[in-house]
Specification:
single chain, alpha+beta, D-amino Acid Aminotransferase, Chain A, domain 1, OB fold (Dihydrolipoamide Acetyltransferase, E2P), 2 domains, 6-stranded antiparallel sheet, 6 helices, about 15% helix, elongated, DNA_ligase_ATP-dep_cent, ATP binding, ATP-dep_DNA_ligase, ligase, EC 6.5.1.1
Length: about 325
């Protein structure tokens, strides 16, 4: 379908940054969905950042090649579900977990759209080395917007105001992209910078999982209080350096227990988890929570010695 002219590529990635203003950058919404490269020729194939074929999960996107000129082409974008005009990751997850007849029957309830924001190949030829500003113009000429594909809008210069507007609307954040930047497949580049809108929560450390080869601290298992009971909220494995991890692990060893404080820990996590008495509270920042109440992209901020576990209400999902 996608022809020998179109190479298999991974998308370019952004680095984290604080919001800033610059005439050298354009700014667009950080869409809360599944990143994908759309390979368009006689048909449509959409692959994830890990090269997984996502096309079958989202049958309403199978006709993207009919909405794009200058084929064969590769377009970079995000698969999202829009609820009241805003991306809903929880609704997208519900779609992503379905397959076959069940998937098709629910497509009307959670229709997805491909938000296009870059182009890698047009007319079967690479445009990777062309500046982003030129690629944006090419993309605008190529795409015929509709129910299944939209163009990501952007602004110039005013990155801080744009980010604040995104936060006010409850969006995940914004991305700054250098106007003169080339496209670097599979690389995380400082030419693209993401401004994330994060949230904060205090949660109970209920256990931990060892690191690689069973050494050191891999992640903390977290819980929150709901209706007087601890419920699982996910794991956090970033935000602490090696020295902090060593100190944490030493303290956790002293309060290990055979009794599981969480009854709803997923089955696939149980064998790796070592339980501790739920005495310690930590602060994490995160992007959003899933419908099941699991934190997305949590980062450890530190132990809260001034708080008790009963002061840690569970985070609720979308």
């Amino acid at each position: 379908m996608n022809g020998e002219q179109l190479p298999l590529l991974r998308p370019m990635l952004a680095v984290s940054s604080e919001p800033f203003d610059s005439a050298a950058y354009l700014y667009e919404i950080k869409w809360d969905g599944y990143r994908g490269l759309a390979y368009l020729d006689a048909g449509t194939v959409i692959r994830s950042r890990n090269l997984i074929n996502l096309t079958g999960k989202f049958p309403e996107l199978a006709g993207l090649h009919k909405k794009v000129r200058r084929l064969p082409a590769i377009i970079d974008g995000e698969i999202v579900v829009l609820v009241q005009g805003k991306p809903s990751f929880a609704s997208l997850q519900s779609r992503g977990k379905m397959a076959g007849a069940g998937q098709n029957s629910r497509a009307g309830f959670y229709p997805v759209v491909f938000i296009a924001f870059d182009v890698l190949y047009a007319n079967g030829k690479s445009v990777l080395r062309q500046p982003l500003a030129d690629r944006k113009n090419i993309l605008k000429e190529m795409v015929l917007p509709g129910d299944d594909i939209l163009l990501s809008r952007y602004v110039f210069r005013d990155g801080i105001d744009f980010y604040n507007a995104c936060v006010k609307e409850g969006l995940e954040g914004a991305v700054a992209k250098k106007v003169e930047s080339v496209y670097l497949p599979g690389r995380r580049s400082a030419s693209w910078k993401k401004f994330r809108n994060t949230r904060e929560a205090d949660l109970v450390i209920c256990g931990y999982q060892p690191g690689v080869n069973g050494r050191g601290l891999g992640s903390l298992v977290l819980g929150g209080i709901r209706h007087g009971e601890l419920v699982y909220q996910g794991k956090v494995g970033t935000g602490f350096n090696s020295r902090e991890a060593e100190i944490l692990l030493d303290g956790l060893h002293k309060i290990e227990t055979a009794d599981a404080p969480l009854e709803d820990l997923p089955v696939n996590e149980r064998g790796r988890t070592r339980w501790v008495r739920p005495l310690l509270v930590c602060t994490v920042v995160y992007l959003t929570a899933t419908a099941g109440g699991y934190l997305r992209h949590p980062v450890f901020q530190g132990v809260r010695w001034d708080k008790s576990p009963d002061e840690c209400p569970a985070v609720t999902g979308e």
